[in-house]
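We emphasize that the prediction below concerns an isolated chain of 255 residues; any contacts that depend on oligomerization or on bound cofactors are therefore not represented. The input was used exactly as deposited, without trimming of termini.
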Amino acid sequence: MKTVILAGGLGTRISEESHLRPKPMIEVGGRPILWHIMKLYSHYGFNDFVVCLGYRGYVIKEYFANYVLHNADLTVDLAKGSIEYHATHHEPWRVTLVETGADTMTGGRLKRVASYLDPDEPFFFTYGDGVADLDIGKLAAFHRAHGKDATLTAVTPPGRYGALEIEDTRVQRFIEKPPGDNGLINGGFFVLNPSVIDRIAEDATSWEREPLEGLAADGQLMSFRHDGFWAAMDTLRDKNQLEALWASGEAPWRR
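Result of the prediction step, given as a token string:
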């Protein structure tokens, strides 16, 4: 199965970093968050990626074009004009980088990469800014078992603020950053049948609107509940929290 990753948005809520590079290239632990996402899929044996480029897409192209160079020992023979690689360390990935337009919406980007997908095979679809300790293998198996057109991963959003339990103006208990109000949200890790692309009208179509809402209305959208770690890197605060987790050596998504 292939994995389609959205990597073309502006990332305006984290403009402190995204004014220089695409949001998926913002680093956590010295590696782009895009790399972390790909490592998750690769851990479960899914190594074929289609990356939807847009804003500053050349940065992502240059990163992968030079990936082996930057992750290997090498000897440069200037007289011969040759490079010899030693002790190369690179991933078993096949990465297709597709220019999907600077202003294209999420659904439009997916439609633009349809020709790179197998028309008879489901595929993964995710955003270029979210990490989780999700079992991708179980997610794929769940999708194949239910027989519907689409699966989304339902997660509980992390709490942003501490909560107070109060009785008669006296604080009974303080809970530091509890999870959300037990409501589930779209965690952004999808498995889709190729037929869902027919629901996308044009570049201006947002995946989260007509296509996803239509799938739900038609009974073709199933949810895979994930109760483990999940985080989206929307702001600099989010980025710093992920960085701290990675530095601790206990990042839940670390593979």
